[in-house]
Design goal:
The structure holds 2 protein chains of 2 kinds. By secondary structure, chain A is mainly α. Helix content of chain A is 72%, strand content 4%. Chain A has 3 domains: 55 residues, no CATH class; 248 residues, MetI-like fold, CATH 1.10.3720; 51 residues. Chain A contains 16 helices and 4 strands. A two-stranded antiparallel sheet of chain A has the order 1-2. In chain A, strand 1 and strand 2 form a beta hairpin. Chain A is globular, with a radius of gyration of 24 Å. By secondary structure, chain B is mainly α. Chain B has 15 helices and 4 strands. In chain B, helix 3 crosses helix 15, helix 5 runs antiparallel to helix 6 and helix 10 runs antiparallel to helix 11. The radius of gyration of chain B is 25 Å and the shape is flat. Chains A and B meet through helix 1, helix 2, helix 7, helix 8 and helix 9 of A and helix 1, helix 4, helix 7, helix 8 and helix 9 of B.
Chain lengths: 381, 325
């Protein structure tokens, strides 16, 4: 079968390659990868170190001009336990039935997964330790989400960003998968759909943000009759935290569904037709073909595109900035926008600290995702 | 079944096209017509006018065309370079085995640390960087040779994608200083280098999946016939990956074409790109929707043309039957 080469296949490939590669060109491996590594390395180290240093310092104005004063962990402390913690982490309210139910379900699921792994055949010390750490951090983040969203409290920028990413990537993936499966059928006019569905991605994100500000305007926008019908023209959605967040999420889904769509489409189209045909001959129905053949074979591409969208999604800034200016209050503010607003207020150290905390969260999510999901997916096929 | 498919497809088509229709008619409205309330259909609800288009093309003229040229040059150049370098790296990661020893990485970290200490201690940065590089080479050829632990392909790939995790807000100032030192601010090369570096991880990750789906047998038989890895890559792997390459090219072009924050910091007058022009229409009197609409429309025009031209490559399932016979 020609499908995807798994890590097992990769190892095989490496074995078959070594004698051939050694004979032909010893340096081919370096030639292929070094240009990219050098460019990325040259361009990433300095910003990474510089902003780390800045996150430990404060901008000072003196007669000699501006300078940076080292303040240790003060910027981080301010965000996590100090005066800015409501902005960053949010305000927790008293527990409610919903928050307890949500947490109980989530923790039970985590405990079950851990238990299954501990009793499973692949148990290793490193693997268990990694999973326990993942479970603890995920549990803490879920606790924060439950106690700020499902109670009378209010979520901070960290939780808002997590909600954006979670909802957006899920919805985008489901819509994109549906559209890709529809377009891949041999329907007349599918080339038209293929191009049209790509359009939203091609608009500059700043432009999309302004476009959605036009569209969601309750007095001049195209939805005016709808607002008028429900008598909502005065109580703009911008004043309702969840309405404003919903507007941001709709904009993000509109813009980035095409990205997932086109990757899944290209992936489905390069699948070997013979497999599907053979399954149909054997009497499989469409649902079975999808679950048994198409879906497993597109999982590697799926896991890549979801990882890219996860990482990019955490950096959402244009939509909340232009659409709602982060408001009402800080209800729609994402982490990147948070970093941007305090950066504009010349708190450059605090801004870098927010950015680094974001980096930590994204790294945690990315590493967990790759280790727990992607690696298994690529090994499976 | 077919009817249901069409209903769903047209429903999403409407969702996609209606905002664009609104852009198009807004570009034909006078400020008065925009502010008076929603008008949907030209000639019936309002009298269309080309005022906004005239303003962008004739009154602004230079201020529209210069950013346009910059966007085209920077977008196409950076995308081409990114796709070439990125697919080479992706192919290496899929078909070769890399083992970077931990000693080499630690040596590198030591070199970087020395350079940082030197720069903080007010040594001129070229000297500091040279000293760090020297230490790196020294350690690499002495201590690092003893180390057995190593990282492999997956770790390299993850390291690459992790370079996109830090938000641009945090990196723009260091990047600004970087190009200031190289005296490249407000030039094409600055934007091109910045975009190549920041988009490479995406190309590597997307192309890795496409290369993995190519049957190994083809490359093996070519290798047995005596083709070099470069030749196999150029004559077999790349032609077979055209759909993936085209899709990836389009993505990266779109990203570079539309990038805002880095361009905002690295350019001022000469190398300014179009997203900045769009954002600049949010003047003190509030957003100038009609100008903004025109600019967004002329911005996506070429990208749409390209998508239509390249669409058939994405569509072609080139792999089918490639291994037969």
């Amino acid at each position: 079968m020609s499908g995807y080469v798994s890590t097992r296949g990769l190892r095989q490939a490496a074995l078959t390659w070594r004698p051939i590669g050694a004979r032909l060109d010893r340096f081919a491996g370096s030639v292929f990868i070094l240009p990219a590594v050098i460019v990325i390395l040259a361009f990433s180290i300095f910003p990474l170190l510089a902003s780390l240093y800045v996150s430990f310092s404060r901008l000072t104005f003196s007669e000699g001009g501006v300078g940076l004063k080292f303040v240790g962990f003060a910027n981080y402390a301010k965000l996590l336990v100090g005066i800015d913690h409501v902005h960053f982490l949010g305000l927790t309210g008293g527990t409610t039935v919903a928050s307890i139910a949500f947490l109980a379900a989530a923790y039970a699921l985590i405990a079950f997964l851990l238990y299954r792994y501990a009793r499973g055949p692949n148990l290793t010390v490193g693997g268990l330790a990694g999973r326990v750490v993942t479970a603890i951090v995920a549990g803490a983040l879920l606790w924060l989400v439950a106690n700020t969203v499902l109670t009378s409290g209010r979520p901070g920028t960290l939780v808002v960003t997590i909600i954006y990413v979670g909802v957006d990537v899920t919805v985008q993936y489901l819509i994109a998968l549906g559209l890709a499966l529809l377009v891949v059928q041999h329907l007349p006019g599918r080339r038209f759909f293929r191009v049209v569905f790509l359009l939203p991605m091609m608009i500059t994100p700043v432009g999309v943000a302004y476009l959605f500000r036009m569209l969601t305007d309750t007095s001049k926008g195209p939805l005016y009759p709808l607002w008028a019908h429900f008598g909502l023209t005065d109580v703009s959605w911008v004043t309702n935290p969840w309405g404003a967040r919903l507007a941001v999420m709709i904009g993000d889904v509109w813009q980035w569904t095409p990205f997932i769509f086109i990757v899944l489409l290209a992936s489905i189209e390069t699948l070997p037709h013979e497999l599907v045909e053979a399954a149909v001959v054997d009497g499989a129905n469409r649902l079975q073909v999808f679950w048994r053949i198409t879906f497993p074979l597109i999982l590697p591409a799926t896991s890549t595109v979801v990882l890219i969208r996860l990482i990019e999604g955490f950096k959402i800034i244009d939509l909340p900035n232009v659409l709602t200016n982060g408001g009402p209050g800080t209800a729609t503010e994402s982490l990147t926008l948070h970093a941007y607003t305090i950066w504009r207020a010349l708190d450059i150290g605090g801004s870098a600290a927010v950015a680094y905390l974001l980096l930590i969260v994204v790294t945690f999510v990315g590493v967990s995702y790759v280790n727990l999901f992607r690696r298994r997916v690529t090994a499976m096929t | 079944m077919m009817a249901v498919s069409y209903i769903l497809l047209f429903a999403w088509t409407f969702v996609v096209l209606f905002p664009l229709y609104w852009l198009a008619i807004t570009s034909l409205k006078t400020p008065l017509a925009v502010n008076a309330g929603p008008f949907y259909i030209p000639w019936r609800d309002f009298q269309p006018t080309l005022d906004a288009w005239h303003y962008i093309f004739f009154d602004l003229r230079e201020d529209t065309f210069r950013p346009y040229l910059n966007t085209v040059v920077v977008g196409l150049t950076s995308t081409t370079v990114t796709v070439i370098l990125g697919s080479m790296a992706a192919y290496g990661l899929v078909r070769m085995r890399y083992r970077v020893s931990l000693g080499a990485i630690l040596s590198f970290a030591a070199g970087v640390a020395l350079a940082v200490v030197a720069v903080v201690a007010r040594v001129p940065w070229p000297v500091g960087v040279a000293a760090g590089f020297g230490l790196f080479l020294l350690l690499l050829n002495t201590l690092a040779r003893r180390s057995k632990r190593a990282v492999g392909n997956d770790d390299i790939a993850f390291w690459m994608i992790s370079q996109r995790m830090l938000p641009p807000v945090a990196t723009v100032i260091p990047i600004y200083i970087f190009f200031q030192q190289l005296q490249l601010l407000d030039t094409w090369p600055a934007l091109i280098i910045a975009y190549v570096a920041s988009h490479l991880p995406i190309v590597v990750w997307l192309m890795r999946d496409y290369f993995q789906s190519i049957p190994l047998e083809l490359e093996e038989s070519a290798a047995i016939d005596g083709a070099s890895p470069y030749r196999i890559f150029r004559s077999i792997v790349l032609p077979l990956s055209v759909p993936g390459l085209v899709a990836t090219f389009l993505f990266v072009l779109v990203f570079a074409w539309n990038e805002y924050l880095i361009a905002l910091f690295l350019t001022s007058a000469n190398a300014q790109t179009l997203p900045l022009t769009v954002a600049a229409q949010n003047a003190t009197r509030g957003p100038q929707w009609w100008y903004m609409s025109v600019l967004i429309l002329i911005m996506i025009g070429p990208v749409i043309a390209m998508a239509i031209a390249l669409e058939r490559f994405i569509a072609r399932g080139l792999l089918v039957g490639a291994v037969k016979g």
